[in-house]
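BUG: 3D viewer hangs when loading the predicted structure for this chain

Environment: internal workstation, default settings.
Expected: structure renders.
Actual: progress bar stalls at 90%.

Input used:
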Amino acid sequence: MKTEPHPIPRVFDWLDHFMALGDDGALREVGRRRSLSPGEGWLVGVKAVASDADVHGDVWERHPAGEEMLCVLEGRVVLTLADDGGAETDVLLDTRRCAVVPRGVWHRLHIACPGKILFVTPGRGSEHRRAAAQPQLES
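Structure tokens produced before the viewer hung:
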């Protein structure tokens, strides 16, 4: 029985190189871009982080389309969550610690110690607000 040759996977530097995960399970390289094609529901990547600017620390975000996984590979990150009334809760993520941000919860990051983070985030429908704005649901 003759087997068909399999494709040789491309090898790449995973740091700051993002992938789109399609609804059909296919992966596509998107580099540093964060734009996805129809049918690609998730953005996956590893990002070097040295300061709050690397994680848009001055911006609250939420993902109504799904939960977001944040894993600290190196360094220390403070994940701040805000409830509907604006009350904030800080979650410290050290090296090898991970958290899942619930769907639709406003959150932002602060880099306490430079490092690298792995993220799996919904690719569409994310909402953003400047940190000075009150992170509350609109009626």
